[in-house]
Write a structure and sequence with these properties.
The structure is a homodimer.
Chain A: H1 24-37, E1 42-45, E2 50-56, E3 62-68, E4 76-80, E5 83-91, E6 97-99, H2 105-116, E7 120-127, E8 130-135, H3 136-145, E9 150-152, H4 153-159, E10 161-163, E11 165-166, E12 170-171, H5 173-180
Parallel strand pairs in A: 5-7
Antiparallel strand pairs in A: 1-4, 2-3, 4-5, 6-9, 7-8, 8-10, 11-12
Chain lengths: ~190, ~190
């Protein structure tokens, strides 16, 4: 488990990937830190939802019993160029298709809500050693128009936006957002 | 502790406040649910950040030891009329002034970041049985221009925006946002 809210004050430009996991979540957390440190976006991983059953307040509020809860929303959210951004990171083991069972029904409803209210929602899918931004809009259309229970890799390649790994950043998903949502981020209405 | 991500499917329009706490967090959580159910905004309380020390995977991933972590961001965030919204709820016991020690330094930095990137950030302060929306901009100006360690209640009354309690909603803070951030929420750039 990672707790990305602990932003390191002295961010190292070069991250040593040799001695650590190269998993999707780490690469995205690194990018979030990089973007924050370089004032490019403010995007955090939400804390893992945990149900607390028992707390020992005598010993400084130690939690003695708790359990992991199913998330209703997506893992990451924040702001980029004045726009609300929310996304989830999904590692896909299958080489041929991305199972929709990876996404909970309430997460799909949540994506619908975000889009309806003018936000940007998407998945970052890791598959066949490639990374793709798959737009929430395309996900909803696929679910609506298909009876398939998985998205073929060929379709992800076709309509997804490839994301590049960068040694300084991690997965440089802001570039993917710029590409996928052209015209994002005019600031006409940011009066506050 | 509350876990607002469990949105009830059958939302009761009339909430019985007789048998429950009327504390600020409940009243805001109720409003978030109301706004979501009525498709007015998508705003959630973030899960409480918890550091997990020990998990028993043999018995279905029961957490045996964990601790509460200090939040780096504000408690609530989401989207309203296409705008990024983030805020924190603060109950103030003092009747004369709101102590700035209620807000952590990294939360102040976070407010700065949000404003810089075109988002809306504020506090909801409960004080003397009244509720106020206090803009992040005003908070940063106060901290910059004053050596005081607390905001006088008179100033909160003067430049804050009063929020009304509504039996159907809870604390109707969207009205406060409309008032405090006039012109919020044109949708010219929501192309996704």
């Amino acid at each position: 488990m990672k707790y990305p809210n602990n932003i390191k004050k002295n961010y190292k430009k070069e991250i040593n990937y040799k001695n650590r996991g190269m998993d999707l979540e780490n690469l995205i957390n690194d990018a979030c830190k990089y973007y924050l440190e370089h004032d490019m976006a403010v995007i955090y991983k939400k804390p893992t939802p945990i149900g607390v059953v028992d707390v020992d307040y005598k010993n400084g509020a130690v939690i003695n019993k708790a359990y992991f809860k199913e998330p209703s929303t997506l893992d990451y959210n924040g702001i980029y160029k004045g726009k609300y951004i929310e996304f989830d990171a999904k590692e896909c083991v299958s080489k041929t298709s991305f199972p929709l069972s990876n996404i909970h029904l309430h997460q799909i409803k949540h994506i619908e809500h975000i889009l309806k209210h003018g936000g940007i929602a998407f998945l970052i899918i890791s598959m066949n050693s490639n990374y793709y931004l798959f737009k929430g809009d395309d996900l909803l259309h696929f679910i609506k128009d298909n009876k398939r229970k998985s998205i073929p890799y060929s379709l992800i390649q076709e309509i997804g936006y490839p994301l590049k790994f960068n040694y300084n950043i991690g997965i440089d998903y802001l570039k993917g957002i710029d590409e996928a949502y052209k015209g994002v981020g005019y600031f006409e209405n940011t009066k506050n």
